[in-house]
Design goal:
The complex is a heterodimer of chains A (about 110) and B (about 110). Chain A has about 110 residues and is mainly beta. Chain A is about 0% helix and about 50% strand. The chains are: A mainly beta (about 110), B mainly beta (about 110).
Chain lengths: ~110, ~110
């Protein structure tokens, strides 16, 4: 399953499939990006980050891709599990002189059994 | 190593009362951020503090809201004379430096009746 940022705020994916969550950012000066996962009633949980001098970073079952040319960020989740159901936010920090994490609206991921 | 601790988890106040939200950052973290989240929305930056200093309060309403992070003790977000529109989840995050990963607490859900 794949979502496209603010235009498709929900993503339904079959258990075991790969998920792709997209995020478009607006500040070309942003140089640090984080993906957070937020489950219902809980605080955002850090998943993975990437700096602007990289275009790909891998974690456990997750991969973040950064395309600075088109200001696009994506999170790929391999073999999606029911526990992956949550709202996913991308966040950016606009340059080394900035420190405010700016959040997108979020994508709700629902995993079908 | 305890994470970011926020209390209370739930707070109910009548209109006109004061709300005090507390945040203890992760051990070793001296940077604290407060965010506000309305239902079905992303997180909006309110204020960034370091020990004893407010660095950026550009996201905080000019009236009724204040924040502090004293040398000893937790960071406090204070809302005076609460109104129904203040009802939201308030999240605190901490980091050990700017422009590094920030970890969130579980939030305080404020309900104004």
């Amino acid at each position: 399953g794949e979502s496209v940022g603010l235009h498709l705020p929900t993503l339904s994916v079959q258990e075991g499939d790969n998920s792709i969550i997209n995020c478009a950012y607006s500040n070309s000066a942003s140089d640090y990006f984080i993906w957070y996962k937020q489950e219902s009633g809980k605080g955002p949980q850090f998943i993975i980050d990437i700096r602007s001098n990289m275009d790909k970073r891998q974690g456990q079952r997750v991969t973040v891709l950064l395309n600075k040319t088109v200001k696009h960020l994506s999170l790929q989740i391999a073999a999606t599990q029911p526990g992956d159901s949550a709202v996913y936010f991308c966040a950016e920090i606009g340059g080394s002189n900035d420190y405010k994490l700016s959040f997108g609206a979020g994508t709700t991921v629902t995993v079908r059994a | 190593n305890a994470g970011v601790m926020q209390n209370p988890r739930h707070l109910v106040r009548r209109r006109g009362q004061e709300a005090r939200l507390r945040c203890s950052p992760m051990k070793g973290h001296s940077h604290v951020y407060w965010y506000r989240q309305l239902p079905e929305e992303g997180l909006k930056f309110m204020v960034y503090l370091q020990k004893e200093n407010i660095i950026d309060e550009s996201g905080m309403p000019k009236e009724r809201f204040s924040a502090e992070f004293p040398k000893e003790g937790p960071s406090i977000l204070r809302i005076q004379q609460v109104v129904r529109g203040d009802s939201a989840a308030y999240f605190c995050a901490s980091s050990n430096n700017k422009n590094t990963e920030a970890f969130f607490g579980q939030g305080t859900r404020l309900t104004v009746v």
